[in-house]
């Protein structure tokens, strides 16, 4: 019983630290501020601003709610300890420990964009139809993961494969801590299986590249001049009803100084696609800036190893045995079907532990 009581005391100290770092009172004040703003009759006239504020409100309520729920669990557990309810307390201590660890992850993900939305892209590697089919399997996996997290997804752009699968896809993932949780998924993902595309069903290895960027709002640090942009408009190739087929609503944006090209055809209206394309461009420019900073850091430290997209982070083996193994953390599971259905928490949590140490 004493060891359980000591655990509770440790949990209480850790929760106090979380509350201090999370700025719980500031968040409660912000909740009240947004709720007051939303009472204005003209609140919904500015659709984008109102939607963003309501998403912020939902995230703040979720975060403060988790803290308050954990505090109640701890208080109840303290009562159990006083009453000598050892059996019930043991299971409660395990649950509190897991919930506290998840909350600590969120606090420790303190990067400037960790709390925000993510832009996830999947690119088929070499291997033709096999790799394109693998890219589509990964697309489904991340969409299912986002669904499990109650995040909103928006497929911005897709290039279909010649026979099956996809050559590439870009997905906006809108949710609190979407970028913080998903950023560790960037890298090469390897699949080993019996090929469904040839009669001999030979064992085949396929690769796909995952890119994860934060969605960045307008900022003075990423000042984009209008004369640096070249816009092209075309009809969307994705399904979207008669309007999409008849109107050039899809956009392609070229950033002249860097040659970066982004496309967006997810929305029915050109202006909406323009805004998303600019957001994608800001993310790409931020990535370019980060790469330059990292390159300079490595040169100063004398590191000469070149970073390539082929750096494998995870293997998914469906034949001759079943296993998914993360190369960086060593975490492995024997149920790849469950992983490919979006159950990624064990891998993402282990990667977060490495990131926040």
Report what the structure shows.
- There is one protein chain.
- The protein is α+β, with helices and mostly antiparallel strands.
- The chain has two domains: 107 residues, Release factor (Methane Monooxygenase Hydroxylase, Chain G, domain 1), CATH 1.20.58.410; 245 residues, Alpha-Beta Plaits (2-Layer Sandwich), CATH 3.30.70.1660.
- It is built from ten helices and eleven strands.
- Strand 9 and strand 10 form a beta hairpin.
- The longest helix is centred in the first third of the chain and has 37 residues.
- About 4% of the residues have low confidence.
Question: Could you give a quick summary of the protein structure above?
Answer:
This protein has 357 residues and is α+β, with helices and mostly antiparallel strands. Helices cover 49% and strands 21% of the residues.
